[in-house]
Amino acid sequence: MNDMADKVIPPQPRDYAGFNWRGFSTLYLKEIRRFWKVGTQTVAAPVVTTLLYMMVFVVAVGASRPAMDGVSFATFVAPGLIMMSVLNNAFANSSSSLLQAKMMGLTSDFLTPPLSSLEQVLAFTLGAATRGVLVGAVTAIAVLPFAQVTLAHPFWALYFCVGAAMILGMVGIITGLWSEKFDHLAAVTNFLIMPMTFLSGTFYVVDRLPEPFRTFSHYNPFFYLIDGFRYGFIGVSDGSIAIGAVMTAVLTVGLFFLCLRLFQRGWRLKT
To answer: Which residues contact 89 (CB under 8 A, 6 or more apart)?
Structure first.
């Protein structure tokens, strides 16, 4: 019996050479199924909110508004509303996912498996971006009856849409790690995300603002995301597309490495 016991070799932990694609895809699909399971709340509700904005600003007010940047008010507003849905939903997905995991003691679900910090950050970021882009696509279909939306530059529309979804997904990761309760999450949403979204030219041309608000608007990164996305639809922009494209790339890379560093340290995840 002792000889047999000596020959029993305990199972060794799985050693993944390189990128753990199976673990990454599992965590990513978990994030997708998490918001898809309550699709009425996470996908349908934002679309209804956008349609209400369209009815208020276009149906009720738009008839008396002059053309903006050479297009009707409805066509001008529609891309901004679509981008607003992308921004808000990408942020909400990653921030709420991490905060709920912390509050319910479920962080071990992604900390215990053989997942590197790189794989964790990519899964949470792409999961949030997927929700943002999906809601944006559904919103675009929903606003078609109200605005004659066409794609003048499809590449830039896709570039700024995906870039914005990833940026806000990573901002949501940082917020979810920092927050200790839903009040903290609501504070960031109400006092940072929403004001920056509404004050970024969603419903108006920034160049028509008086100083110093016009200058301040050009320091708002959301302005370049919405302006670049609108340029992809109507072919006209208030700011520089080149500056917006570079800023989007820099923010994406910078936030990615910041999130990676926070996960490597286990900031507010590990005691």
So the answer is: 42, 46, 131, 132, 135, 136
Cβ–Cβ < 8 Å for 76, 152:
no
Which burial class, exposed, middle or buried, applies to 203 when counting CB atoms under 10 A from its CB (0-12, 13-18, 19+)? middle
| 11 preceded by a cis bond (ω within 30 of 0) | no
Cα 170 from chain centroid (whole Å): 7
Distance CA 187, CA 99 (A): 14
Per-residue pLDDT in tens (0 to 9) along the chain, 271 residues: 555 555 667 666 666 678 999 999 999 999 999 999 999 999 999 999 998 888 887 766 655 566 666 788 888 889 999 999 999 999 999 999 999 999 999 999 999 888 999 999 999 999 999 999 999 999 999 988 888 788 999 999 999 999 999 999 999 999 999 999 999 999 999 999 998 988 888 878 887 777 877 888 888 999 999 999 999 999 988 889 999 999 999 999 999 999 999 999 999 997 6
Q: At what angle do helices 154-178 and 73-103 cross, to 10 degrees?
A: 30
HSE, side-chain direction, 13 A CA sphere, residue 42:
23
Instruction: Give the Cα separation of 149 and 244 in Å (integer).
Output: 22
Token code pair at residue 204? 């108006």
**Which H or E run includes 113?**
none
